[in-house]
């Protein structure tokens, strides 16, 4: 059928009416009308008493001039209606056949047409002067109704996940497997995170994505060359059509949805049918697509898409969103489920996320729509994957793909950290690390560093079944980070845990001197930082349960009353100018001799 612009046809009818009125009252004038590229055009040339005569021979429309009177205007409305009904000047149903070496109209007709009687008409249609000698490479048009036809089918070449096929002939329901033949009328339904790929006789492929339902409505082979006319009904879900480069240009492929028909020749496009409201979304990735609904045809070129709602015409095509920016997306994932960082895409309302086991995306393990960033995937086994993301605009059209290779290395999972917890202050410069253990782990790997990037970390190993490890060397005061990984016999070394910070405080100083006098005791220790204070404690026991002196001083010295003879214990804790407290230094002890009364020595002589 010829593709017409209805506004142009309306102008043709209006022109006829204007011409009729002019013919009644004024000298007859005429505007030239011609057809080019399936559209009707009007020239501004006027002729006095000359009319353009159109002749239709069943194949094309030809024009010629002749002298006419005003009655010719009565024919124009009839001609306009005729165009609306179905002129075949340039037919969408023509088979574009490429002449090969040795071809002539006679052997072409013998191989591909239902009758040799079409040879003269084929010669006339293609304006061939010598039907016996046609240059190879010339493309001729063959109306499909003249061509021989035989039933075709399709074959399942890839399947992943859960999918079923319902036979039209027997209503039998089968699990979809590779090499399964799909006949006309058969239905295929895919489950979540599943997909099926069909291949037709012309090597074009249709990928049925997750949670979709299709029916093979037509699969016919024209002539002897395997040129295929295919029509698939998409009840709900999404499909991707892929035609191989260099495929036969006569191939016809239609996707029919509840709202529209998408027709294509040798291209790559996506069609989605919304299960809820029946809206059809068509997106062209390569080539050209024609979408038809409610008497209107819309041509959609590469990089554009259109939306068709039930009982409405397709909207004017809009440009698809570009592919996403993966510059903020990491290559390695050590936690599952995945949390995928992505720079926001301007104009995107949501994102389709697909993760596959192969770069061709034949085995898609994750297929979901994410409304917000970051993207959150499902739990995956360790290994290499391919990530594909495309933005969805406000109308639901999906944009161009962005593809990135990623790796999942999340097992064995790192142990749960028990101590020190994030931000903790350890009480010793040789801290103890504790974690939850697992019976399948043979050893644990510990890293400690002054920075969170672990570029110059200290590495330790522990096979402790209790999940306990103490550093062999002391740490200088300051902030540290630590993390831990597990190693199993089967999997090997897993990822490290998230880094945990802890602080090793400044230790208390040791005494430099002790001066014991009759009434008081003087203590002194090394000076600290500017503005530093010290908490000094002295007790009669090493556990400091019986503290007899607890003072805060701003100098590295203190004087306390002499409490008499006996053993005493003391410790000192620094407090920085910003209020940060250190830890008490090592416990030190000293002894004060007992005082004897002056008369006791004389009692021995009495």
Automatic annotation (TrEMBL):
It holds the Pfam family LysM. Signal peptide: none annotated. CDD domains: LysM. InterPro entries: FecR, Ig-like_fold, LysM, LysM_dom_sf, UCP029644. Residues 95-142 form the LysM domain. SMART domains: LysM. This is LysM motif. The lineage of its organism: Bacteria, Pseudomonadati, Pseudomonadota, Betaproteobacteria, Nitrosomonadales.
